[in-house]
Amino acid sequence: MWYVALCTIVTLIICIIHWVYSWRNPRCNGKLPPGSMGLPILGETLQFFSPNTSFDVPPFIKKRVERYGSLFRTSLVGQPVIISTDPEVNHFIFQQEGKMFQSWYMESFTEIFGRQSVLSSHGFIHKYLKNLILTIFGIESLKERLLPEVDDTTRKHLHLWTNQESVNLKEAIATMIFDLTAKKLISYDESKSSEKMRENFVAFIQGLISFPLNIPGTVYYKCLQGRKKAIKMLKDMLDERRATPGRGHNDFLDILLGELKKDETILTERIAIDITFVLLFASFETTSAALTLAMKFLGDHPSVLAELTKEHEAILRSRENVDSRITWKEYKSMTFTSMVINETVRLANIVPGVFRKAIKDVEIKGYTIPAGWAVMVCPPAVHLNSAKYDDPLAFNPWRWEGLELNSGSKNFMAFGGGVRLCVGAEFSKLQMAIFLHYLVTKYRWITIKGGDIVRRPGLSFPNELKKDETILTEGIAIDVVFVLLFASFETTSLALTVAMKFLGDHPAVLAELTVINETVRLANITPEVFRKAIKDVEINGYTILARWPVMVCLPTVHLNPAKYEDPLAFNLCRWEGLELNSGSKIFMAFGVGMRLCVGAELSKLQMTIFLHYLVIKYSWRNPRCNGKLPPGSMGLPILGETLQFFSSNTSSDVPPFIKKRMEKYGSLFRTSLVGWPVVVSTDSELNRFIIQQEGKLFQSWYMDSFDDIVGRQNVLSVHGVLHKYLKNLIMNLFGPESLKHSLLPEVEETTRQHLKLWSSQASVDMKEAIANMIFDFTAKKVISYEESKSLEKLRENYAAFLDGLISFPLNIPVTSYHKCLQGRKKAIRMIKNMLHERRASQRQRVDFLDLIVEELEKDGTILTEGIAIDLLFKEHEAILRNREDADSGITWKEYKSMNFTFMVINETIRLANIIPGIFRKAMRDVEINGYTIPAGWAVVVCPPAVHLNPAEYEDPLAFNPWRWQELELNAGSKNFMGFGGGIRLCVGAEFVKLQMAIFLHHLVTKYR
Question: CA 905 → CA 843, 908, 964, 988, distances in Å?
């Protein structure tokens, strides 16, 4: 008995060994390509489906190409597969369809898309179905019908997005394209349907390219369920159309019904439903993924965005009506756009593999592909082949200059190839081109989250902003409140103080700027730079775990004898023929500020001399530029002309720093401040141009030291949708409606109380008293803070903050800048504590901080000044005479009638020049008046030079409110920018004028 059992076990073991051997060594009438078949049945499926986050060739393919070459064998989901990464072999496979190969997909893929879809059909059936699809997606249909419809749909959705605080780009584009495609294919309107077809496609897409395990809970199972529901909806539509033959919809489903009614048609109901299902998916998913990546690439490459914008703005200029639709001729003229599209889909590699099956034994490059074996053509390996594409991972649309921009070739197969070239390729490119046209000519955007990719191996976007997420964070909230508390009282109190000096016949002095000396730190180089891994990272066969710190050791790079002969020697000759740039893999000293030689004083001395003579002395004073830089001086290395800029002065005139350089260089000149190259503009026309071009050529920018003080996420520093969002948030407090109904009576009551209090005092420090009055009021409205009831004095922290706001940024104890940062730190801590307390209490909204919490949970002559004061008295006394009750509060109508008061306020602010400069940064090279402002350079618009320009204001240093009689009294124009300009016009401008007007009213009517 034991003998029989033993024989059975031995036989079983022999069978298993034979089976495993046969699996690993398949039969072949020739020589199989090298490779591994992996585990029996499972093969190398798990490795194939493992996710990666790179734009490079998938690791599964890359490792095997390095080991086996461009043609190798493997096994996926129980199927033996030959994978080709060779462009010539791929081209041969595509050209031999129907002769040696036929279209094929894995069993799981066929199960998802349908066994009778256009993807799975062959021969004349495939040709028939392709021609059927061309009736809707062919060139004639694109020209006559689809082009205007795509144009209208794109405009509609882009406009819709502008009303939203943020947009999940991939989802929004997919929805836009699905709406159009579903309408053209089946006349489906999501908003009018009780069943949401789009939701079924979401489930379908998530499991399309996944491990085919059909059990509840897996993405593959959800995918099949999504398909099942979508197919049912399509079948119900088809049955409904058949039941009501008289109703024409003029869509693709009607065309299919017409074909089904024909005698001897080869079209069946199953084929009709499968083909509609595939078209609905293919027409929106791939295009939306490509457009999402295109926007990521454009955001990362300003030069490409600039060239793209230039092409589309040229189209607008050539039209009679700039708002007309895009024509076919215009679309075909978009050469650079086509290059951007090709480059995007080349890097996107949305289709990770194109499958065929050998219908007979095929000899290729000395190997045999057995009949029945699958063949996978690998587009990523072709698109990222360094032999065909220079620097293949770089996004460079210009590489397509001089190349054919067609949809398929042996080196470009984003849309397939051969007879299986995607029938919707031209439609997809049309949608992308129209979307990009309107995007770059009418809109601006910023990325607030996402942009990462994951390949499983299909492309997906894992961390896009969801609909229920807010773009407001606690950090932003605290920065906004902090800046509001400062900006709402300090500028106003300063302006009122200057006004009092003018009206009271005292010398006018601008705010003092602390002068601080700073030591130049050319040799302050550190031996290492630390980073932290934000996810698991594979490097040289090892894994760096997420959240582990990584230390880059620079001395081992700079003193590597394999790279530098005699590395400790000081030898300038070694750099001959090498690029002297700031950073490369073998030279990192400049970009990251690290020590060239660890621990050796001689090495530090050598590196200091090297940096000084090689880089600083020869490149600082003569910056690189693709055109002609404005005239000027860059000053000393690193320090620039910072000391001169921060020099104090007591004049109401244009600051000496600006005035001297205007006389020497003109109205546009270059300089350097705190290490930044800066172009200064004192020309009103240029200033207007710079401010109006925000988001196109320039963006708001401040020095790092300023951002450190006011917060990097404050309303001054953010851009695009986030700036618009924060501005609208603040308008809840300072907007016209709030001013009329809430703030006006409260400001008046506060003003009366403080003026009465001052009248009982022997003397008043006017600047301090006004600042306290406005701070008390603003703090109460913003955060319900009352100084008298609080143990911690918020105002004291702001006093320290203000002393160093515009000072030399030397952050060491005893400096104004250091005290400023400490004041900010304490104020931020207090605001943060208040915020946490509010979030815990969940009280009803009372002030601005409650609104934030809601969002988180989701110098002139005596005569002139005397007459001005007299007129000011008369204007406000007239207001009192016109009242029934002289002690009643000021009304909005009375406030708006104070014309001479507004003239006094404008003249005060014009001479005060509280804001010495408005900063912007060039987003790309900008040509102005024959000069070039290089991309990345800062631009300072100089309001004092505008406000004190004798060509615009006669006797500009005189305090003369009458000069405003013939001028507009609005908050911003090219010749008056006391409140900024463009989309950055101060959101609290009207509130400031309201406070000043009410203060002056009670001052001149009740006090002397």
Answer: 39, 5, 10, 15
The answer to whether residues 772 and 901 belong to one domain is yes
Residue 889 CA to residue 740 CA, distance in Å, equals 12
- Joined together, the tokens standing for residue 233 give 């909806």
Per-residue burial over 917-956, b if 16 or more Cβ lie within 10 Å, else e, is bbbbbbbbbbebeebbbbbebbbbbbbbbbbbbeeebeeb
Type of residue at 189 = D
Do residues 787 and 794 make contact, with C-beta atoms less than 8 angstroms apart?
yes
Same domain, 432 and 573: no
At residue 612, the pLDDT reads: 38
As given in the structure block, the two tokens for residue 406 are 């067609």
Q: What angle do CA 686, 689, 691 make, to 5 degrees?
A: 110
- The token pair at 180 is 């159009």
- Eight-class DSSP state of 629: P
Among 93-107, 307-321, 778-792, the range scoring the smallest mean pLDDT is 778-792
Tokens found for residue 727: 């501005």
Six token digits for residue 416: 């397939």
Identify whether residues 389 and 512 lie together within a single domain.
Answer: no
Q: What is the number of domains present in the chain?
A: 4
Model confidence at 300, pLDDT cuts 50, 70, 90, reads confident
Q: Within this chain, do residues 577 and 610 fall inside the same structural domain, yes or no?
A: yes
Structure-token pair, residue 208: 């399309």
Taking phi first (over 0 means left), then psi (-120 to 50 degrees means alpha), and beta for anything else, what does residue 473 get? beta
Distance of CA 683 to the CA centre of its chain: 31
Q: How far apart are CA 917 and CA 667, in angstroms?
A: 14
DSSP code for 161: H
- Do 575 and 658 share a structural domain? no
247 Cβ contact list (under 8 Å, min separation 6):
241
Rounded CA separation 728/726 (Å): 5
Say yes or no to pLDDT of 615 above 50. no
Cα separation, 633 vs 642, whole angstroms:
12
CA distance 203 to 224: 8
Q: How far apart are the first and last CA of the chain?
A: 125
Helices (H) and strands (E) in the chain, counts: 39, 20
Q: Return the SS3 of 544.
A: strand
Do 792 and 870 fall within a single domain? yes
- The string of pLDDT tens digits covering residues 679-724 is 777 777 776 777 667 767 777 666 666 666 555 555 555 566 556 6
Query: Which of 681 and 555 is assigned the larger pLDDT?
Result: 681
Alpha carbon separation from 422 to 118, 137, 419 (Å, rounded): 11, 11, 9
Of residues 784, 674, 708, 782, the one with CA closest to residue 738: 782
Indicate if 863 and 977 belong to the same structural domain.
Answer: yes
Q: Is 422 a known ligand-binding residue?
A: yes
Sign of CA dihedral 599, 602, 605, 607: negative
| Nearest one of 472, 407, 448 to 94, comparing CA atoms | 407
Residue 838 lies in a domain: yes
Q: Would 633 be classed as within a structural domain?
A: no
Mark whether 659 and 769 lie in a shared domain: yes
What does the alpha-carbon distance between residue 644 and residue 92 come to, in Å, rounded to a whole number? 71
Q: Is the sign of the CA dihedral 285, 288, 292, 297 positive or negative? A: positive
Angle between helix axes 899-912 and 989-1006 (nearest 10 degrees) is 110
d(CA 102, CA 375): 10
Q: What is the pTM for the complete model shown?
A: 0.52
Residue in the block written with tokens 């040709």 = 127
What is the DSSP code (8-state) at residue 372?
Answer: T
Instruction: Say which CATH number the domain at 942 has.
Output: 1.10.630.10
Residue 668 bridge partners (DSSP): 681
Neighbours of 617 (CB within 10 A): 11
Lowest mean pLDDT among 160-169, 337-346, 687-696: 687-696
* pLDDT-above-90 percentage for the chain: 3
Expressed as residue numbers, the domain containing 592 is 528-619
Q: Which two tokens stand for residue 289?
A: 């993924």
The residues that bridge with 677 in the sheet, in sequence order, are 672
